[in-house]
Structures are given as structure tokens and as C-alpha cells.
Amino acid sequence: MNLTQRDRKFLGRESAPEDIQVARMTGSFVYDARGRRYIDFLSGWCVGNFGWSNRDIRPKARRRPDYVYPEYLYRPWVELAELLAEISPGKLQKCFRATGGSEAVEIALQIAMAATGRRKFVSLEGSYHGNTIATVSIGSTEEQEPYPNLLSNCLKISPPLDARAAARLERLLKRKDVAAFIMEPISCNLAVLIPEQEFMETAQDLCRRNGALFIADEVACGFGRTGRLFASEHFGLEPDILCMGKAITGGFAPMGANHRHAESRARRRRRSWFLSNLRMAPVVCRCGHRHGAVADPERNETAESRRGHQCVSPRSSRGDGLRPIGRGPRTRNGHRR
Ligand SMILES: Cc1ncc(COP(=O)(O)O)c(C=O)c1O
Predict the structure, then answer these.
(1) Full domain range(s) for residue 198
(2) How many domains does the chain have?
(3) Is 143 a domain residue?
């Protein structure tokens, strides 16, 4: 059996793999097993924002210990949490450790329920927030079809995000039974949907007035993806919770986090329990810290635009043998995100 046949036989996937056998990756390039070089416009779907094998991050990844039990005190966790609080928008302060983006969103939803004592959520129709039961529930209605009995009480507003969408949001929130409104501030999963500034201001204000939390899912659009460190910054948004993942470690290993507002509105009313034994493993924690430092707001815009420039340099358009690969991941109904 060749590799493709073994892949088909042993690996659970939603669709057939791309026609490229990856051998290594550096910067914006992917090399196949025959040494051919490709431009990677996909960048792991928002994971490789700082380029693959980034030398600023790599050496830190190799130090010990391999594992620390989450209930112990461990300096790099505290330092990373402090750094994330420093670089994230608004008054976000408390960091919750997660093993990836889906778990970061999952924890955010649990925090919102515990903080408000409510169980409803509002999200954007067609959105994607992860692959757990709760994150699928707040995502695209289409994606939920194969799973009966998902979280009930997940309400949706439809793009475009304008005055009409704001009016619908107001109708849903004014019943004062919604725990949180969640959205990607710039939605990578809705073909880069950019909301109107007025919508964002109104949405934040509506959440505040009606006791719902505003959760910004920046798992995909965070860490420099949109030209600012966090997409919330484009709108002056001060979310109550901000979810991070993907580029936080640049692909060295999975890690997620979310940051919660320090003030009373987001204070937990009930005790909550977010135990996971592999969260923020030391090796990824150090990468996360490195990324956070590399991605500081001063340097971020230039880093991202430099990389963009590299991807579309005249060299590649002259036809020097580089072949762009990378279509967005497919949703369950076969569409590309
Ligand atoms: C906006 C958003 N949130 C959450 C997730 C889930 O992240 P992960 O794949 O790390 O679980 C994704 C993944 O594509 C995403 O795009």
C-alpha cells in the first residue's frame, strides 16, 4: 500500500488530503517529499501567522520539564498569563488555560453561564467556533444537522452586521436571559466578514445594558491575522472574554486560552470547574510566551505586512516554479470556509 492508501485506510478525515506529501516547512514555504517548494497561502488556517519554524520561537520549545500537573504552581504559566493580559485589549486579566481553540471557546461559554446564571447564547448564523458539542451548537445551523440534542437555547443573528442585525440582537438580549453574545470580531469563517463599526458599538452596549457577556472569539483572527494584534482593536472593542488559540504557538503544539474581564460583571457567581490535564504543557507555554512577545503591538503590523509582501513578491509571479497550495478547510456540507 502506498501512503495515500494507508492514509485512507487508517486516518479518520472528513475529506481526501491535498495532493502534497509534506516533508518540511519554513517561513511561507512548504516543501514536498520530492523537494518541490510551494507558497503556503493557507498558513495552517490561521496557525502560522509568524511563519513556520520561526527562529525567534523555536529554541525556547526544547527546554524541560516535559509536563507539569495543572494544579501546581509554575512560573511560565503565570508569566504567560501576565503577558497575555498586557497585550490583550481592554481590561482582560484572568487567563484560563485550554488545550486548543475549541476548548478555549467551550470554557468561555461555561464562564458566561457561571457568571450570569443564564443558559442562552446568541451567535452569528454560519459561524464556526469549534468542534465540541457546545461550540457546534453556537456555530452554523447547517453543521448541527447530524447531531440531535445539541445545546438548546442557541439563538442566531444573520449577517450583514448592520443596523438590522443590531435591532435583532436587541430583541434577543432585552429579555435579559442571554448569558453571552459570541462572535469573531472579523469573521475568518464567514469569508472575512467585517462588521460595521456602529454594529460593534451597539452590540457591546446592548450586552452591557442587558447583563450579557460579550465574547470575542479571536482563535482565528487573533495574533496578527488582520493586521492588528487582535481584531477587536479595529473597533475599540473591550470584550468581557477573549478566546485565543491557533497562532498563539505558531503550530509548535496545540494551546488555547481565554481571558476574562477583571471586574465584577464577569465575576463568577458559581464555582466552575475547567480541569484538563494537558492544558498549557510547558513546551507550548514557552512557545506561547515567545509568540506573545514577538507579536507585541509595536512590531505586529510590520511583521504581518512583511510576510504578505513575501508571499506575493514579483519573484513568484514570474513563474519560478512555485505553485500556490492551500484551500480553506471544508465544512461538513463540503463548502470551503
Ligand atoms: C473562530 C474559531 N474558533 C474556534 C476554532 C476551534 O479551534 P481548534 O481547531 O483549535 O479547536 C476555530 C478553528 O478553526 C475557529 O476558526
Answers:
(1) 75-294
(2) 1
(3) yes
pLDDT 10s digits, 211-243: 999 999 999 999 889 989 999 999 999 999 999
Residue 39's beta-bridge partner residues? 29
Q: Are strands 213-217 and 241-244 parallel, antiparallel or unpaired?
A: parallel
39 domain residue, yes or no:
no
Question: Does the beta carbon of 244 sit less than 6 angstroms from any atom of ligand 1?
Answer: no
Please tell me the distance between residue 314's alpha carbon and the centre of ligand 1 in angstroms. Answer: 33
Q: Is 101's C-beta closer than 6 angstroms to any atom of ligand 1?
A: yes
pTM reported for the whole predicted model: 0.86
Dihedral sign, Cα of residue 92, residue 43, residue 130, residue 9: negative
Q: State whether the beta carbon of 251 lies less than 6 angstroms from ligand 1.
A: no
CATH number at 223 reads 3.40.640.10
Residue 306, in any domain of the structure: no
Is residue 318 included in any domain, yes or no? no
Closest CA to 48 of 59, 33, 58: 58
Any atom of ligand 1 within 6 Å of the Cβ of 106: no
Alpha carbon distance 115, 136 (integer Å)? 21
Nearest to 40 by CA among 25, 55, 23: 25
